[in-house]
């Protein structure tokens, strides 16, 4: 551990208050406000810094890590998801990785619920009708959606955000079901009124709503592939606020177009993380620009978590939000 002030590189501008504190505590440099760092800028950062603070737009892969200098000891990610970081290679090179869980949970679960409500109750269609000035007045058969209460929601990935979605869904009268890598303890299941499905296929086939809340890892890549998507009831909808790669987006697009799946609410997209143009043409898909955790309060708290992780490390302790390869 160096006795000098730690040199910290933050790849993108953060909230003012967080930046000020980082500058007070460490020798801190910030990337540009209006764009992610280039590959060359990232390589220079990992060569020189003790600590790197990236976000999900920065690809911290094996090739970048192979250019890391001896000093680089901590990657303190600004965000909960770490699928853009090669955590195993970092570990092998003795570089710790931390993230910002918990502070994104409630906001992300709120947006998940908002997507479920918007899909089942046809909010975008109603909004568009009003904006077109196309409304002919109330009618008994106009804009009929599906009742939320009583519907079955199947949550894939019952961690922090999955459980927060379960609490909201339950408050709206939905029946909560889940599939997770590990079954929850009985008292948590009881508290959440949630039924566990060991078989993801069986759960998917019986739900009215599927909510994706597991991380993107090699074992979840296209977990919702064409075969599984086909198991969904034709009137069911799927919502993804985790990472786009968990769903086979091309298969989903085809099935939304053919009506084999009634609707999708997507905050996240695969590959280059931009929405696929063929999805944008569909009127049964609600697309959001990766904004599920985007609240002013949340961003500040994410910054504070980054600060705590770096400060704890600087003081010679294990950062509280350490990510280990086995956890993923
Ligand atoms: N859209 C956004 O703005 C936004 C915001 C925050 C987080 N996220 C994403 O949400 C993800 C989940 O966040 P979290 O805080 O709830 O994480 P978490 O670690 O608390 O929960 C993830 C859950 O998924 C389960 N899981 C992992 N692999 C699985 C598999 N193969 N099959 C079934 N279950 C599996 C884990 O056991 C865990 O219970 C993050 O990794 C991130 O990618 C997105
Ligand atoms: O992983 C996360 O935290 C989100 O996707 C961005 O806040």
Question: Outline of this structure?
Answer:
With 328 residues, the protein is α/β, with parallel strands linked by helices. The chain has 13 helices and 12 strands.
Explain what the structure shows.
With 328 residues, the protein is of the alpha/beta class. It has two domains: 7-99 and 295-327, Rossmann fold; 104-287, 3-Layer(aba) Sandwich (Rossmann fold), CATH 3.40.50.720. The chain has 13 helices and twelve strands. It has helices spanning 16-25, 39-48, 62-65, 87-92, 105-120, 123-131, 160-171, 186-192, 200-206, 226-231, 249-258, 277-280, 296-314; strands spanning 7-10, 27-30, 51-53, 74-76, 96-98, 152-156, 175-179, 194-196, 209-212, 237-240, 263-266, 285-287. The strands form two sheets. A seven-stranded parallel sheet has the order 8-7-6-9-10-11-12, with helices on both faces. Strand 4 (74-76), helix 4 (87-92) and strand 5 form a beta-alpha-beta unit. Helix 1 packs parallel to helix 13. The two termini are 27 Å apart. The model has no long low-confidence stretch (mean pLDDT 96). Belongs to the D-isomer specific 2-hydroxyacid dehydrogenase family. It comes from Pseudooceanicola marinus. Residues 113-292 form the D-isomer specific 2-hydroxyacid dehydrogenase NAD-binding domain.
Spatial separation of the terminal alpha carbons: 27 Å
Instruction: List the uncertain runs.
Output: none
Mean pLDDT: 96
The CATH superfamily of the largest domain is known as: NAD(P)-binding Rossmann-like Domain
Q: Which terms would index this structure?
A:
single chain, alpha/beta, Rossmann fold, five-stranded parallel beta sheet, 13 helices, globular, binds nicotinamide-adenine-dinucleotide, binds (2R)-2,3-dihydroxypropanoic acid
